[in-house]
Specification:
Blueprint: H1 9-26, H2 31-38, H3 43-71, H4 74-93, H5 97-124, H6 131-160, H7 162-183, H8 200-208, H9 211-240, H10 245-261, H11 263-272, H12 277-293, H13 300-328, H14 334-363, H15 365-388
Helix pairs in contact: 1-5, 1-6, 1-7, 3-4, 3-5, 3-14, 4-5, 4-7, 5-14, 6-7, 6-10, 6-11, 6-13, 9-10, 9-12, 9-13, 9-14, 9-15, 10-13, 11-13, 12-13, 12-15, 14-15
Length: about 400
């Protein structure tokens, strides 16, 4: 590794690793249900397989973040990459739904080690006045991989068959292990000047007293309840309206494109505005309105229009939340804080899938979307109250 590399190179390598890893991981999204069904899995078993990944990612993100604070970013990052690639290779050799569920536990473990660590690394290498732009680039790369991955997986599945997709995905992710190993320098101040982080429970108690951080986590949890409603139930809602299956792709693509394209301008605006919380509250307010409005849509055009608003607002709010967390948490606790952020994402989506599923089943989609929008709105209000009830300077 050369010490005279261009100052933007570490961030670009981090973005490359994020894009390729999420691209490879999400290539499997349309393939895994079909592959599981070909092995004899029913609908419930397919749900268990996907739930295994989310459960492990949510449970282990916080302790994985603490490990990265204690050991440095390199070991958890490289370990996560090996687990992510290894899970793909193991899926290729799996022959039963139970084996797939066990492998998806491994996948969730790898993601919990990889994602908070790389986010913390981006914060480590970025000056505070440029955090918005850095996380704009990083989250755009991440979301771009999540958006393009399923399309590529579906195409390769049709062209090559289901099993070979797992080999391609694993190979792509494994290549990023070597990129991280040789080209991703970690922050030089890892151990020489930083304060050693406390154990898990004391660290969580410290973070619990950081009210701006708690506000960001509340906003993340509430926002992902709304996003979980969209991801889980929008396909069924579109089908209930009598629209074609292709309409699902158009609505999801519109949301994803708006979400990704909003990241860079949101990051620049975050660095240029004095009160960054205005972008979070404004984004969540628009997010809440869009989520509730889905229940009033009856045509593909209206659904796509609202999806665009949702993507724009979500991209704005969550980019700024990442920058705020990196700025308001001491460096020695940054990994565990990013772990809490990732746990909030998975917890919000799981709560939405379970809770809103019962509500939709009894009261219909319109009520489900309205209540989800209400949850996002409540999270916005609570964010504003918690963040402004304490000074940022007392937490940094």
């Amino acid at each position: 590794m050369t010490p005279h590399r261009h100052p933007a190179a570490p961030l670009l390598f981090a973005c490359l690793i994020s894009f390729v890893c999420f691209f490879g991981s999400y290539m499997r999204i349309p393939i895994v249900p079909l592959f599981a069904a070909s092995l004899g899995a029913d609908t419930i078993q397919v749900g268990v397989i996907n739930g295994a990944f989310a459960l492990m990612a949510g449970l282990l993100s916080i302790p994985s973040g603490l490990i990265s604070d204690r050991l440095g970013r390199r070991i958890p990052l490289l370990t996560g990459l090996l687990l992510l690639s290894g899970s793909s290779f193991l899926l290729y050799w799996s022959h039963t739904p139970l084996q797939m569920a066990a492998i998806y536990l491994l996948f969730g473990t790898g993601l919990s080690a990889f994602s908070p660590t790389l986010m913390s690394h981006v914060a480590d290498i970025t000056p505070p006045e440029k955090l918005g732009r850095a996380f704009g680039w990083y989250t755009m790369a991440l979301y771009g991989g999540m958006t393009l991955g399923p399309a590529a997986g579906g195409f390769l599945g049709s062209a090559l068959g289901l099993r070979p997709v797992f080999l391609v995905a694993g190979g792509l992710i494994l290549s990023m292990f070597f990129v991280a190993l040789f080209f991703l320098p970690l922050h030089p101040a890892d151990r020489s000047t930083a304060t050693a982080p406390p154990p898990l429970l004391p660290a969580l108690k410290i973070l619990q007293k950081n009210r701006p951080l708690v506000a960001c986590l509340v906003a993340t949890l509430g926002g992902c309840v709304g996003f979980g409603m969209f991801v889980t139930f929008m396909p069924l809602y579109i089908k209930s309206l009598g629209l074609t299956t292709g309409g699902v792709g158009f609505v999801f693509a519109t949301q994803a494109l708006a979400n990704a394209l909003s990241r860079l301008p949101s990051g620049r605006l975050c660095d240029g505005i004095r009160d960054r919380t205005l972008l979070v509250t404004g984004g969540l307010a628009l997010f809440s309105l869009a989520t509730a409005s889905f229940g009033l849509c009856r045509s593909l055009t209206s659904l796509m229009a609202v999806a665009a608003v949702m993507g724009l607002s979500m991209g704005t709010a969550f980019t700024v939340i990442c920058a705020l967390i990196a700025d308001i948490v001491p460096r020695e606790l940054r990994g565990i804080a990013m772990g809490c952020y990732n746990t909030g994402i998975y917890a919000g989506m799981m709560l939405s899938s379970v809770g809103m599923g019962m509500i939709v089943g009894s009261a219909g989609f319109r009520v489900g979307f309205f209540l989800s929008g209400t949850v996002v709105g409540a999270a916005m209000l609570l964010f504003g109250f918690l963040y402004r009830s304490d000074t940022i300077s007392s937490a940094t």
